[in-house]
Specification:
Strand order of the largest sheet: 1-2-4-3-5-6-9-10
Pfam family, one: Abhydrolase_1
Shape: globular
Strand content: 15-25%
Distance between the termini: 18 Å
CATH class: Alpha Beta
Number of helices: 9
Order of helices and strands: EEEHEHEHHEHEEHHEHEH
CATH architecture: 3-Layer(aba) Sandwich
CATH topology: Rossmann fold
Largest sheet: 8 strands, mixed
Number of strands: 10
Protein name: AB hydrolase-1 domain-containing protein
Length: 291
């Protein structure tokens, strides 16, 4: 059964180990392959709705989540960072999807920081991830190479200094995003890029740990994104995975795409709807044959 793309998704709540409720929106296709869609920073599931509906219209059972502290999800009592979202939110959502669908494995389709948190969770739980992740799609995802240019390093350093003075970043405060964001989380991103190292808050080194992961990976690099997720950073993140089914695409005019996609446009734009979304759907469909 294919979902009607105009029908509102069904809302579920995944209850985390720390009792925070994570909102999940299901574009239901019972029997279809489960696909969990994960947004990035300063965003919510709403930014991924177009892509989620398209995947559902292609017959997939799509679940689009909100990280803690935004959208329909609950705000935790204390500060949180990428490690929190990765190690607490992601397993709660995966468990919910497994319970509701009766299927052991799911695909993850992610944008920006969404790809990082799935990778971070998987890196610390490789056996579980290899058993329960049927494939991962990342769009414009990198962790530690945004400060290679002097002007970008200065910008990130100034951002990090400002973030020391607040707990929650209001929407649009930094010129991006529709949702508030955790200052602790963004301080972590600044530190990764200023130090050139993708380390957890406890010192865990994520890049070498990714080599233990063997599920299929599709990495889409936004050709016009030279700051948040530059090509070198995206390639470094993607190439750290141990996957043998490993595809990296540079989404730029030079490589046959309609435009040099910027950070947000690779997820949501008219050209993305025409060529990025179908590319993702085809990749998932091909690998779903063995799901």
């Amino acid at each position: 059964m294919q979902t009607d793309p105009q029908v509102s998704p069904i809302r579920y709540t995944a209850r985390c180990a720390d009792d925070v409720g994570i909102a999940c929106y299901r574009f239901a296709n019972p029997g279809g392959v489960p696909v969990i869609v994960v947004h990035g920073t300063f965003s919510s599931h709403e930014g991924c709705t177009g892509l989620a509906r398209q995947l559902a219209d292609d017959g997939m059972d799509v679940w689009s989540m909100d990280w803690r502290g935004r959208g329909g999800s609950e705000m935790p009592d204390g500060p949180f960072d990428f490690d929190t979202v990765a190690q607490v939110d992601i397993p709660a959502v995966l468990k919910l999807v497994q319970t509701e669908t009766g299927k052991r494995s799911a695909f993850f389709v992610t944008h920006s920081g969404g790809g990082l948190i799935v990778g971070m969770w998987a890196a610390r739980n490789p056996e579980l991830a290899n058993d329960s992740v049927h494939g991962l799609v990342t769009m414009a995802a990198q962790a530690h190479l945004a400060a290679e240019r002097p002007q970008h390093r200065q910008r990130i350093a100034e951002m990090a200094q400002y973030l020391e003075t607040i707990d929650i970043i209001p929407p649009r405060q930094l010129g991006v995003g529709s949702e508030p964001e955790s200052a602790a989380l963004m301080r972590q991103w600044c530190r990764w890029n200023l130090d050139g190292a993708f380390l957890g808050s406890d010192g865990f080194d994520y890049l070498p740990a990714l080599t233990a992961l063997n599920f299929p990976l599709l990495c889409l690099i936004a050709g016009g994104d030279h700051f948040v997720a530059p090509r070198a950073g995206c390639e470094s993140f993607a190439n750290a995975f141990g996957s043998t089914d490993h595809t990296v695409r540079h989404c730029s005019q030079e490589h046959g795409f309609a435009e040099d996609y910027e950070h947000g446009r690779i997820l949501a734009s008219t050209p993305a709807r025409k060529e990025i979304w179908p590319l993702i759907a085809a990749w998932v469909r091909q690998r779903a044959k063995t799901a």
